[in-house]
């Protein structure tokens, strides 16, 4: 997994609450058996005026000029500013895959849905929770300041605005470590294979019905 | 020291190791696998040269992409077909038990798990699908995971988890006639909101939950995720144990006795403390209908579509206005004035035998309204379908002008050929009314099976209690 330490990037504001994973990546694109290539279909129903299907050349499709990511000033954005409960709905990891493939490295919101939040960490994508009033202010600053960039420092747990103000965010130590180091979680868990085997041995005695083949 | 919650008991029984950062390595007893969220996980195993840790803990089924019409010709859409073939191939090569598309036991993963006794009380159950919360109805700890975690479970039989906070949702007293499990859970979501349960594991309790059948409890736990909670659960009682007994994967003989003795302990202690308690008066719950594009946008059938101008919070106000625009609804429209184009009875929320019986009871001897273009019933599994046919329910549906289909996820999320066309309005027994969920531009109203059936007959929503 790609590590995340520091990142400075252009901010795009998505001013809607409860953005669900069906909106992030519609179901027809979930038929892929690959992990990559979802970026062109990120927010497909909002981004294009026609109906999207897998395998299309998206560069030929009519764009919705009203959708924020289609506006010239947000081209190349890598930090998504969002509202509460971002990523609600299904467990599809295709949602963070699509965001990452599009070019986002971090998402800032007042809250995230649990499964989506966990999925981000497995894919080098940093979800940052900031208080609602701070997010409100970032929305205002982003919209009034062309080229608005934020500087994110994961080890220091700060988001720094262009004026130099550093906003602190909280993140649990384990998730931070995985992301900063870009670690393979399965490899780490398998270092505890003996513990897993010992647990299984005990459970076979206590609850043998769980091990019927 | 106070007693333990059901969640505490389930959690404690599965901790393999406590990590220094506050997370724990949690053992997974049952891993359910379907075709959409697993191919990249199997590919990851292959790339890393890893094998499944414990093959017999996995059970796989294809459900999202399968056609609900004649299957003798296979799947027409080559992209869907490849995904289902990939699951078949992965299960064959890793030795995982799979109910393939033509197996009589095939069905929606969250229907077949309990139906087979493959999900049991006291288990940890995961699946790459957010509606895995359904299995919590068994008195299990069950939640959805992403594909990276699917791979992690395959490779290690564990997950690295941080314990959630605990919430008790107590539905006190008895619901009135015509009010179902679906109405209870929609009312709960309306009360606490779609993010109300974020960070929590919800235990559903109270007289109204105790009075529900297992099918009803599954409907309630299924939608815990729509309240933001990854896991929902219900304590074990006689209803649970009677349901499990005799199922193919359930224990027998001496192990059954041993298991039941343990399962009887799976309830919150009387002095257990929850981080949050929500109490709802069952008698106040009416049949529910969602009007917007989030499950929390719900109203009682006697109510109206709300007016955004009366909402003071600016984010909520704009969300409501956008939802009404998408749904093509005017503020303050009575719910019973909303006409529907299609009716879908099915999904992991409401496709079990009891759901089909409830819908058939409303429909019997009546006809679908001419204005309703399509009314379809998609049983949750091949075995539910067979049971319904033995009871003659299929005839009730087809004689009323409904289509009787093969089992699968179908128009809940429209990954197969079943979908809404842009602008079509649907009364649906599924779980999500998100924009585009049932087809791009489609408009979904979530309701109970009885309410969906009544809407199909009337052509618009009606109060099933006076129907």
Helix- and strand-based class of chain B? Answer: alpha/beta
The radius of gyration of chain B is 21 Å
- Compute the number of strand runs of chain B: 19
Beta fraction of chain B: 15-25%
Report the helical percentage of chain B: 25-40%
Instruction: Name the helix and strand elements of chain A from N-terminus to C-terminus, one letter apiece.
Output: EHHEHEHEHEEEHHH
SS field, number of helical segments of chain B: 15
Reading side by side through the largest sheet of chain B, how are the strands ordered? 5-4-3-6-7
Task: Walk me through what this model shows.
The complex is a heterodimer of chains A (213) and B (467). With 213 residues, chain A is an alpha/beta fold. Chain A has helices at residues 21-24, 44-47, 94-102, 114-121, 132-144, 173-181, 185-190, 193-206, and strands at residues 6-13, 79-81, 106-109, 126-129, 149-153, 158-160, 166-168. Chain A has a 7-stranded mixed sheet with strand order 4-3-2-1-5-6-7. The mean pLDDT of chain A is 96. The longest helix of chain B has 17 residues, at 78-94. Chain B has 467 residues and is α/β, with parallel strands linked by helices. The chains are: A alpha/beta (213), B alpha/beta (467).
């Amino acid at each position: 997994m790609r590590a995340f330490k520091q990142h400075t990037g252009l901010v795009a504001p998505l001013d809607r609450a409860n953005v669900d994973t069906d909106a992030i990546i519609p179901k027809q694109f979930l038929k892929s058996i690959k992990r990559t290539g979802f970026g062109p279909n990120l927010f497909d129903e909002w981004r294009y005026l026609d109906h999207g299907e897998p395998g299309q050349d998206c560069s030929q499709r009519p764009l919705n000029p009203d959708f924020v990511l289609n506006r010239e000033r947000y081209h190349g954005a890598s930090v998504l500013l969002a509202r509460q409960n971002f990523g609600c709905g299904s467990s599809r990891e295709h949602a963070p895959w699509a965001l990452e493939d599009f070019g986002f490295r971090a998402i800032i919101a007042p809250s995230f849905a649990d499964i989506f939040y966990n999925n981000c960490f497995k894919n080098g994508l940093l979800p940052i929770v900031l208080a609602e009033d701070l997010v409100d202010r970032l929305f205002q600053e982003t919209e009034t300041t062309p080229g608005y960039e934020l500087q994110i420092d994961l080890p220091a747990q700060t988001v720094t605005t262009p004026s130099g103000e550093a906003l602190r965010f909280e993140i649990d130590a384990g998730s931070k470590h995985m992301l900063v180091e870009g670690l393979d979680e399965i490899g780490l868990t398998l270092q505890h294979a003996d513990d897993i085997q010992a647990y299984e041995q005990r459970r076979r005695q206590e609850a043998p019905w769980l091990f019927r083949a | 020291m106070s007693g333990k919650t059901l969640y505490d008991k389930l959690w404690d029984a599965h901790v393999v190791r406590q990590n220094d950062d506050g997370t724990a390595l949690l053992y997974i007893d049952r891993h359910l696998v379907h075709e959409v969220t697993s191919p990249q996980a199997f590919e990851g195993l292959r790339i890393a040269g890893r094998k499944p840790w414990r093959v017999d803990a996995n059970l796989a089924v294809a459900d999202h992409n399968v056609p609900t019409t004649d299957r003798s010709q296979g799947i027409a859409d080559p992209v869907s077909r490849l995904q289902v073939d990939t699951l078949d191939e992965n299960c064959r090569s890793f030795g995982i038990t799979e109910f393939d598309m033509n197996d009589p036991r095939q069905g929606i993963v969250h229907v077949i798990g309990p139906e087979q006794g493959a999900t049991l009380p006291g288990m940890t159950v995961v699946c790459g699908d957010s509606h895995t919360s359904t299995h919590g109805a068994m008195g299990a700890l069950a939640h959805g995971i992403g594909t990276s975690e699917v791979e992690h479970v395959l490779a290690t039989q564990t997950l690295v988890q941080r314990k959630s906070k605990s919430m008790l949702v107590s539905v006190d007293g008895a619901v009135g006639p015509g009010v179902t499990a679906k109405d209870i859970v929609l009312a709960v979501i309306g009360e606490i909101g779609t993010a109300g349960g974020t960070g929590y594991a919800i235990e559903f309790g109270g007289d109204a939950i105790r009075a529900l059948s297992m099918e009803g409890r599954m409907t309630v736990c299924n939608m815990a995720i729509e309240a933001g909670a990854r896991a929902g659960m219900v304590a074990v009682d006689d209803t649970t144990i009677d349901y499990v007994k005799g199922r193919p994967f359930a224990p027998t003989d001496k192990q059954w006795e041993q298991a039941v003795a343990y399962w009887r302990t799976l309830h919150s202690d009387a002095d257990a403390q929850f981080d949050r308690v929500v109490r709802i008066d069952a008698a106040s719950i009416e049949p529910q209908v969602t009007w917007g594009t989030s499950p929390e946008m719900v109203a009682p059938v006697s109510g109206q579509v709300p007016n955004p101008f009366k909402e003071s919070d600016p984010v909520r106000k704009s969300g409501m206005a956008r939802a009404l625009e998408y749904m093509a609804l005017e503020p303050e429209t009575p719910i019973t004035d909303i006409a529907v184009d299609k009716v879908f009875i099915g999904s992991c929320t409401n496709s079990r035998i009891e759901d089909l019986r409830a819908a058939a009871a409303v429909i019997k001897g009546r006809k679908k309204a001419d204005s309703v273009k399509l009314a379809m019933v998609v049983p949750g599994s091949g075995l539910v379908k067979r049971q319904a046919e033995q009871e003659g329910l299929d005839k009730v549906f087809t004689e009323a002008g409904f289509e009787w289909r093969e089992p699968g996820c179908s128009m809940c999320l429209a990954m197969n050929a079943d979908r809404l066309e842009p602008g079509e309005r649907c009364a649906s027994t599924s779980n999500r009314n998100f924009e585009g969920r049932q087809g791009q531009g489609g408009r979904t109203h979530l309701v109970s099976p009885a309410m969906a059936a009544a809407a199909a007959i009337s052509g618009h929503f009606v109060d099933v209690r006076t129907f």
